[in-house]
């Protein structure tokens, strides 16, 4: 019985060594094939690594360093359910995300940006404003700004309008 166990163990060891040797030879053959292809293309492994590093670096450029300009306390009276004026209001602080070279122009446009925001937000009733999320307000304002600047055939002086604070009373 002991001889049978030894024979099985020996057979398993030989099979394991044969499989390892086959795997190693396939790996060596593939790596030699890749190196030969690189030499045929006029490149070596170092050039491939440098090209891959340069490509990765180009893809992972850091995001621009944005400036954030705040437009505080935009107050809007909200309408009642039938369109009548009610004593409810919406207060919002808007933050404009601008590139450093656009910061001055954005600050110069704050009065216009306030006017566009009031116009876009004043059409809402208390119920519709309460049903909207902060993201909905941001989308609404960004669309209003994009439409206004497109009508004037100008580019907006900022990348995006964000909501800094939102109060509905």
Alpha-beta content class: alpha+beta
How many β strands by DSSP? Answer: 3
Mean pLDDT: 80
The CATH superfamily of the largest domain is known as: Band 7 domain
Signal peptide: 1-24
Keywords: Cell projection, Cilium, Flagellum, Signal
Protein name: Flagellar basal body protein
Please give the structural blueprint.
Elements: H1 2-40, H2 45-59, E1 67-79, E2 85-98, H3 103-108, H4 110-121, H5 126-131, H6 134-151, E3 160-168
Antiparallel strand pairs: 1-2, 2-3
What is the structure about, briefly put?
Keywords: Cell projection, Cilium, Flagellum, Signal. Helix content is 57%, strand content 21%.
Walk me through this protein's architecture.
There is one protein chain. By secondary structure, the protein is an alpha+beta fold. The protein folds into 2 domains: 2-59; 67-168, 2-Layer Sandwich (Tetrahydropterin Synthase, Chain A), CATH 3.30.479.30. The protein has helices spanning 2-40, 45-59, 103-108, 110-121, 126-131, 134-151, and strands at 67-79, 85-98, 160-168. A 3-stranded antiparallel β-sheet has the order 1-2-3. β1 (67-79) and β2 (85-98) form a beta hairpin. The mean pLDDT is 80. Residues 1-24 form the signal peptide. This is Flagellar basal body protein. It comes from Roseateles amylovorans.
């Amino acid at each position: 019985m002991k001889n049978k166990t030894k024979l099985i163990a020996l057979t398993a060891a030989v099979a394991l060594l044969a499989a390892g040797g086959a795997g190693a030879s396939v790996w060596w053959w593939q790596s030699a094939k890749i190196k030969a292809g690189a030499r045929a293309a006029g490149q070596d492994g170092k050039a491939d690594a440098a090209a891959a590093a340069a490509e990765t670096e180009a893809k992972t450029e850091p995001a621009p360093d944005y400036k954030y300009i705040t437009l505080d306390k935009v107050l809007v009276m909200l309408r009642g359910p039938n369109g009548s004026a009610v004593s409810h209001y919406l207060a919002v602080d808007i933050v404009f995300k601008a590139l450093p070279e656009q910061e001055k122009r954005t600050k110069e446009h704050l009065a216009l940006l306030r006017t566009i925001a009031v116009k876009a937000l004043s059409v809402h009733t208390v119920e519709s404003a309460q049903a909207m999320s902060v993201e909905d307000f941001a989308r609404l304002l960004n669309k209003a700004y994009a439409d206004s600047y497109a009508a004037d055939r100008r580019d907006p002086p900022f990348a995006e309008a964000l909501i800094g604070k939102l109060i509905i009373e």
